[in-house]
Write a structure and sequence with these properties.
The chain is mainly alpha-helical. Helix content is 63%, strand content 12%. This is Zinc finger GRF-type domain-containing protein.
């Protein structure tokens, strides 16, 4: 029931609508597409208020036919928008995974660089050790050659000194053998 003097409406559930609580809405149904109406702001909240009043005149038949195509186009646009949102979510997920994989690759590259640096350092140390070993080997060969040289000298000296002694002994023997 609507009271025109006070601008209020009392619904069957006891809720009192006023002009302050009315909301201007636009119909999207095929039969009344684009037609404006007043409805209670609490229509979807709590107990449903049945207040409803058309503001515009009924739409023409051709307008209703056009509204059907507009409604189909809107449905198509909604599904395309939903598909675009799904693609965006998938792209965002792929981008996040790619970022994570890039971070892992960077971490692995940094570790590989560190391993290469350590390898190069140990390679330099190995080369230094090899150079010292070669130097030690060279010194050992020189020492060995010198010891052989002295051995041969000693042997020659002992041979010559023994033979001189033998010769002297022959000379000094009484029988002159």
């Amino acid at each position: 029931m609507m009271s025109s003097s006070s601008g209020t409406y009392s619904g069957s559930n006891g809720h009192m609508c006023t002009y302050e609580t009315y909301v201007l809405r636009t119909s999207l149904t095929v039969d009344n597409f684009g037609r404006r109406f007043l409805g209670c702001s609490r229509y979807k909240v709590g107990p449903k208020c049945p207040f409803f009043q058309w503001i515009d005149n009924p739409t023409c038949v051709r307008g209703n036919e056009a509204a059907h195509f507009v409604q189909q186009k809107m449905d198509l646009l909604r599904s395309e928008l939903q598909l675009a949102h799904e693609r965006e979510r998938a792209a965002t997920q792929v981008a996040a995974e790619a970022t994570q994989m890039a971070e892992i690759a960077q971490d692995r590259a940094a570790k590989a660089t560190e391993r290469e640096r350590k390898f190069r350092a140990s390679s330099v140390q190995a080369k230094e050790i090899a150079v010292r070993a070669l130097e030690q080997e060279r010194k050992c060969r020189i020492a060995l050659m010198l010891s052989w040289f002295f051995f041969i000298l000693v042997m020659l000296f002992s041979c010559f000194s023994s033979s001189e002694n033998v010769g002297m002994m022959k000379l000094s023997l009484p029988g002159g053998l």
